Amino acid sequence: MSPRDRSSGIASLLVKDVRPPWDGQEDAQLERLLSDRTRALSKGALLVMESEASPARYLVRSGWLAVAKSLPDGERQIVEFILPGESYDPTAADGQTSFVELEALCDSNVAVIDTTTWSRLMKDLPDLRRCESQLAKAAWARQAERMLRLGKSDAETRVAYALIELCMRMTAIGATEDGAFHVPLSQQQLGEFTGLSSVHVCRTLRRLNRQGLITTEDHMDINIHDLYALADLAEVDLTMLRRDIIPGAAA
Amino acid sequence: MSPRDRSSGIASLLVKDVRPPWDGQEDAQLERLLSDRTRALSKGALLVMESEASPARYLVRSGWLAVAKSLPDGERQIVEFILPGESYDPTAADGQTSFVELEALCDSNVAVIDTTTWSRLMKDLPDLRRCESQLAKAAWARQAERMLRLGKSDAETRVAYALIELCMRMTAIGATEDGAFHVPLSQQQLGEFTGLSSVHVCRTLRRLNRQGLITTEDHMDINIHDLYALADLAEVDLTMLRRDIIPGAAA
DNA sequence: CGATAATTTGAGACGTTTCAAAGCGGGTGG
DNA sequence: CCACCCGCTTTGAAACGTCTCAAATTATCG
Predict the structure, then answer these.
(1) Each residue of B198-227: pLDDT tens digit?
(2) What is the pLDDT of residue B21?
(3) Is the pTM of this model over 0.70?
(4) For chain B, which end, N or C, has fewer CB atoms within 10 Å of the first or last residue's CB respectively?
(5) B197 in contact with nucleic chain C (CB within 7 A)
(6) Within 7 Å: CB of A52 and strand D?
(7) Does strand C come within 7 Å of the CB of B200?
(8) Which helix (H) or strand (E) holds A152?
(9) Least CB-CB distance to B93: which of A79, A93, A249?
(10) Is the CB of B216 under 7 A from strand C?
(11) Strand C-contacting residues in A 180-239, CB cut-off 7 angstroms
(12) Which ranges of chain B does DSSP label H, i.e. alpha helix?
């Protein structure tokens, strides 16, 4: 990790509104198409279940979706969070079945676009296509980043990384204020994301707290006080991470 | 995991040649284009380094590539293997930089196709596009499967799963014989893939051996003797896994 | 205000890593 | 063709980190 100027504000690394506001920039017809297919989900609702037929793409317009997968013994891993403006296609190689489960983590609005329609949109709307291509690259980069830590890091690093990733993504959509943001997660769910037990998530959060890196308020309002120390713990280079996982954030 | 007919042969679940032989089915022009851009790599060669500019897609024509990522302290995670017929684009959200490292695990031939050319191919060759779309879905499903085990499983399950995944993918390209196949990996590298130390990979392999599930010969010639027991250990439903991660394997 | 879920903390069990040393195997040069 | 060397595998023993179980505390919601 290269040395960085620690005096520069958080804003320089976590700039707001860097994500191209793709909806709205295409014609109003797209907006109508999406509105027509948007479903309201309440917290905890299962949008799609594992192994269920679901040849569609899900586009989150508000709220959070968890992409999760379970072992026969009930252990659950959250593989990805879908934030507003992002989309996910859970279709497996057979083109029919979903290989994951999609759950609303809070009250949400999600547009459901069947594969055929989506292909047509991709063909007809070059701006949308470019935007989704960037988002897809970002998603790949995030997954690699997480697998690295899932496989090779201890609890502190995993939690620190998760917080940084979420903070960056939230900042990109203008959902943070000075390193403070809300995530609609229980410690249990943060554990399912980081591959830790909820008990150990709690201990780790507490430790970060004691070190003065973060504070948390009611049910996961997170305040990052020392982003740079947190980044060191997460073994992350903020500039590189942002370049890799935030669309339109090119240095 | 639902009960299965254990008397049916391995072949019924791990059918050969299910992958659409996309190259050759498009016109000879594509073949020429690929040949022109194919580079020979010797074992251990680094094709792309992390953070290096690389706006291209890499298509493996023969050999194996590892997609890997490292922590500052040197810990390494292999995020994906690219087998013959598969491709990978390591470009991050900025459209320029690679977020991973690409390494040849054995002597290989890889076609390097810059992003622009690739986009053109995708536009012009619907068969290729469909095929790559299936392969991409399979890759997403595999990653989810692995993250689940990376986060929530013990060593035995992780190793068993890795062996099964590799066996299935090898079978799909006709590179196995009766559950026997060769992987160009050291135990160290299998550890980097499964998130284990090489020492523990060794112990785990030995244990599977003692249980009569597998045998190994010189440098990773793997023989799966009891696929169903191995699948139970891996906590995997073979039929579902194949449907999810093998293109063209729809039940 | 009571019921229920989520967080917090402690103590012990368990699985994996680390360190260290020995054994094997393949390749090279004598 | 053998001797040597180097890298990979194998095994043991101790240290470490995380999980599990259990109980106390704190939030949340009707």
Answers:
(1) 999 999 999 999 999 999 988 889 999 999
(2) 52
(3) yes
(4) C
(5) yes
(6) no
(7) yes
(8) helix A126-152
(9) A249
(10) no
(11) 186-188, 198-199, 202-203, 205-206, 216, 219-220
(12) 10-13, 22-25, 28-36, 115-124, 126-152, 155-172, 187-194, 198-210, 227-234, 238-245
Q: Can you tell me the distance from the alpha carbon of A92 to that of A82, in angstroms, rounded to the nearest whole number?
A: 18
CB-based burial label for A35 (10 Å; 0-12, 13-18, 19+):
exposed
Structure-token match 């430790």, residue found: A207
Task: Please give, rounded to a whole number of angstroms, the shortest distance from the CA of A245 to a CA of chain B.
Answer: 6
Residue type, B198: S
Q: Which two tokens stand for residue B58?
A: 């890499």
Structure tokens at A195: 């591959």
Distance CA B134, CA A91 (A): 10
A47/A109 Cα distance (integer angstroms): 11
Instruction: Report the C-alpha gap between B248 and B88 in whole angstroms.
Output: 19
Set of chain B residues whose Cβ sits within 8 Å of the Cβ of A243: 92-94, 97
The predicted pLDDT at position A17 comes to 40
What is the rounded distance in angstroms from the CA atom of residue A159 to the CA atom of residue B251?
Answer: 39
Other C-beta atoms within 10 Å of B14: how many? 24
**CA A132, CA B128: separation in Å to the nearest integer?**
20
- Suggest the residue from A54, A76, A152 to mutate for an interface test with chain B (most B CBs closer than 10 A): A152
Would you state the structure tokens that stand for residue A201, as one six-digit string?
């998530």
A41-67: b (≥16 Cβ within 10 Å) or e: beeebebbebbeebbbbbbbbebbbbb
Place of tokens 């394997």: B249
Question: pLDDT tens across A219-249, in order?
Answer: 889 999 999 999 999 999 999 999 999 998 7
Paired tokens of A162: 């998760």
Q: What is the pLDDT of residues A75-85, one digit of tens each?
A: 999 999 999 99
